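ingest -> validate -> predict -> emit
validate: passed (alphabet ok, no gaps, 168 aa)
predict: started
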Amino acid sequence: MKTANQFTERNAKRALDETKKSNQLTLRSYVLATDIKPLKGRLEEGLVVRVVMKNTGKMPAQDVAIGVRFAYAASQPRPAVRHEADVSSRSLIGPDQTYPGDYPIRKPTQAESELLAGGKGKLYVFGIITYNDFFATDHVTMFCGMYAPTHGGGPLTFIFCPTGNAAY
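emit:
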């Protein structure tokens, strides 16, 4: 039979664990891809795209690595996976700070150009961001942006995909 002291001790430990977990969620870093934009070049010739990451959390994000891929495709490609993050260039992003990364995109092949011109394809820029916080917890953010050309050759702008954007 448990004594009142054992019961009280167990409940106090549970309350302390829940408080610690709540504080970690409140204070942790949250790194998101907040913008995808073309920097230079033209879609037909290949271009450079900037992906802007932002830490919206309250603590610095450390060992930030990003893996960026692109595809000219008729439908959204599969999400990037953790090992695709570029571990050779790690960064520290403080709270409410941004960090830009510039990534070259090759020009489309003839078949990809026809897919885009026919309105059946899009250019997808997608990837994964890995980082950890000062609680020694690893986190992953996936992102996906797309560009669908319009008739009339308007400015090249990306919008975030309806799926494939998540933070863990």
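The mean pLDDT is 83.
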